[in-house]
């Protein structure tokens, strides 16, 4: 073990004590008494590879047009899953300025509102449309005369229309669409926020998410020019490329293709099925661990109010117990910290605290300085934004301490040890015992499924798979049968096969680096303390190495076809040849924060050769991904379908 570092992957497989990144050094951290400023939730988008602020502005204008199309005062009824994404597009003032008097969520039961005009902004799901229909019928039964508009995001479906017809409310509504697709989450991150994409594409065979992705990419081409080169890996990725070609033919003439000078040099489309190992690993970057332990949703994390200096007293209970904090590059300190391995966060915060102390001490020496030196000092204060830096330092010190407490627990270190064993070259006879023990201890069902999925993805199946399935059903209930079937459909619950795909990939793509330095890394594998994501390795080879040709054998081991095409209709690149190439990396089925960190590392190490823009159907972690595969079925429903004997 290195001083101040982390145990290597190989050494972890031999140790039963927590690795060093679980030991958080409180003495390294400098506390600021109170956090007085909370960063804005909407990212400023000042350092994007291309002007993605234009995407947000387009979404804002379209929302305004929708609201203006409904005259006078109105009630806005939102799909709960759209509330967060809309907050990254438009502030509340925009809604109010366009006639929205009150805002509600789509929830079962009657909608109580005195407003005559009701606007629904929803995803076209069966459950949501039926709730809307029931609310309209309830109003009519009570004799309430209202007008209804339903705007489906990102488009209406035939199924939604048929449900409205069946519920006899079709004639009472005016329908439209709100084409909200890629939402800017930060300077280099876009998301469709389509949380069921993985489930729909790879389990249900529903290709809606693929169409939405292709449509969003074609819209980007209309704004930033045609992609000069298109690369893709996976069945879903290939389908997206095919739909893009069809949409281009339908929407653009050959002349229009070349009118906009391309700003994005290439797009690399990967579907999640190509790399099912990475999302089930515990993320070990600062941002990744915040997501694992506290949860990040739409760039917001909910924290105890005390963490930001808003502690309520016995006499004043009006202040909230929790508060939502924005995590994006508006916060300079967070931007510098988020991609670091957690083992380096203590020293990092300590160095920033020392820097602030030096600035404070310098203030006391100003009386002996010349006017020009005082001006320089004031300029430095403005550039640093000292007060904001102090507030951010206090906040992230508190968050880091909370994470430190969580990862020092025995369960966490045991989990990491098991994951590292799965990634290593050692004999894995202990793995089945670890899985069986997790089930026998009745650990959290999602945690068990996540570990089972990782074991299956790295071991090309599971030893004694049928026995493990039976144990899970007996422990957690036979209604979990349908969930296990979903896992089986995507290859995450299957009998172990003789071939060892992951072992071959580990060698050919250099997935494991036992000597990586998490404090000062020279390889992206630092993000998982010795493991490099398969997805990020593919992007690295495509952009800063010799392309996918030299790793052709590795690509054959991964599921799905390969696409590598040059677009003859795209205009040639103009300007300086030394300007970095802009690469759009698209993940179908979700991307983790740690994969984003790995891509940012490639960009930093490219010496200005490439800049990445990352787009995804959803930002995920292992729990959120496996949750989409869970079937909520009444235990009585499987009584006749499963015989435990």
Descriptive labels:
single chain; 645 residues; alpha/beta; 7-stranded mixed beta sheet; 5-stranded parallel beta sheet; 25 helices; 15 strands; 43% helix; disordered C terminus
Report what the structure shows:
With 645 residues, the protein is α/β, with parallel strands linked by helices. The chain has helices spanning 9-12, 53-68, 80-87, 92-97, 126-141, 158-166, 197-204, 208-224, 235-251, 254-257, 286-293, 332-337, 345-363, 371-384, 386-407, 410-423, 429-440, 445-459, 465-476, 481-489, 501-508, 534-543, 552-557, 593-605, 622-627, and strands at residues 74-78, 100-105, 117-122, 147-152, 173-177, 183-186, 189-191, 229-233, 266-271, 296-297, 300-304, 322-326, 562-566, 581-588, 610-616. Strand 6 and strand 7 form a beta hairpin. The radius of gyration is 26 Å and the shape is globular.
In this structure, how is the largest beta sheet organized?
A: 7 strands, mixed
**Count of helical regions:** 25
What low-confidence regions span 5 or more consecutive residues with pLDDT below 50? 1-40, 637-645
How much of the sequence is in beta strands? Answer: 5-15%
Distance between the termini: 49 Å
**Spatial sequence of strands, sheet with the most strands:** 6-7-15-14-9-8-13
Structural class: alpha/beta
The helix content, as a percent range, equals 40-55%
Radius of gyration: 26 Å
User: What does the overall shape look like?
Assistant: globular
> For the residues shown, what is the average pLDDT?
87
Number of DSSP strands? 15
